[in-house]
Specification:
Elements: E1 2-7, H1 11-16, H2 19-26, E2 30-34, H3 45-50, E3 54-58, E4 68-72, E5 78-81, E6 94-98, E7 103-108, H4 116-137, E8 143-148, H5 172-183, E9 186-188, H6 189-193, E10 220-225, E11 232-237, E12 249-253
Parallel strand pairs: 1-2, 7-8
Antiparallel strand pairs: 1-12, 2-4, 3-4, 5-6, 6-7, 8-10, 9-10, 11-12
Length: about 260
């Protein structure tokens, strides 16, 4: 099974930059998008249907903001949106698809970069996410979590760790959450495949020609629960794809829809 995840920074913008044609060529079994910035009526669903996908769109109440989408090559699944969170429940941040063999969770974590209030929301979201994942894990031990986590976990995952230690996305308490999350029975698939890889990033600010000089952060992930670790075939990043300020990330795993 081949999965692609991308913070598209607006699905309509990404489609104009060639995302649709690229997806048609790559033909993933599951396509997970974050920050779609669109309602269902704004998206050309016929394009995806012609490629064999069943869409799930979870838009934010605020127009042009946040939102997630999953396009699946299989129609049979149970759908859940959200995870019961309060501050972020209207922001379209969580889609979970319950298949017979595994659960897919597509998530867009809050960034926390706009001030103390949003940082508090982010930390609360992290706590709620752990609780939610622990809950659904009782139903099926095989879970794939993907999306824009808005946290660079280690110094390998960011171009300037010392200069960003006080910035949201690399705060000690955020990184500690990722460490404890992994210790609770999860695998960072990219690090499983590329344990010592440096300068492998999935996001670059549009300012200062950051991508040209590769001054980036790895904040987009595919995580799997421990029982799926041996099924990982490959995981990586497509940094050359310029549909957004994020690069698509992918997972290839011995699992079927």
């Amino acid at each position: 099974m081949y999965l692609i995840s991308l913070n598209c920074n607006g699905i309509r913008s990404a489609m104009k930059k060639g995302l649709g044609e690229w997806i048609a060529r790559e033909d993933p079994d599951l396509l997970c998008l974050q920050e779609i910035k669109a309602n269902i009526d704004d998206i050309d669903l016929d394009f995806f249907s012609e490629l064999g996908y069943t869409p799930t769109i979870h838009s934010a109440e605020k127009k042009g903001y946040s939102g997630t989408a999953v396009f699946s090559k299989k129609k049979e699944y149970r759908l859940e949106v959200g995870m019961g969170e309060v501050e972020t429940r209207n922001e379209g941040r969580i889609i979970s698809l319950f298949y017979s063999k595994f659960i897919l969770v597509n998530a867009y974590f809050p960034s926390g970069t706009t001030g103390d209030t949003r940082q508090e929301v982010k930390m609360e979201f992290l706590s709620q996410m752990q609780t939610y994942l622990d809950k659904i894990r009782k139903e099926n031990k095989n879970i794939i979590l993907c999306g824009d986590v808005n946290i660079a976990h280690t110094e390998l995952d960011i171009h300037n760790p010392k200069g960003n230690i006080k910035n949201s996305g690399f705060l000690p308490e955020e990184r500690e959450w990722v460490s404890k999350f992994l210790e609770s029975g999860w695998v960072d698939t990219f690090r499983k495949v590329h344990p010592e890889s440096k300068d492998a990033y999935s996001w670059w600010t549009y300012r200062f020609q950051a991508k040209k000089s590769n001054k980036g952060w790895r904040i987009d992930y595919f995580f799997v629960t421990n029982p799926l670790e041996k099924k990982i075939e490959d995981a990586g990043i497509y940094p050359e794809m310029d549909f957004s300020d994020h690069a698509p990330v992918y997972l290839k795993i011995k699992l079927s829809l």
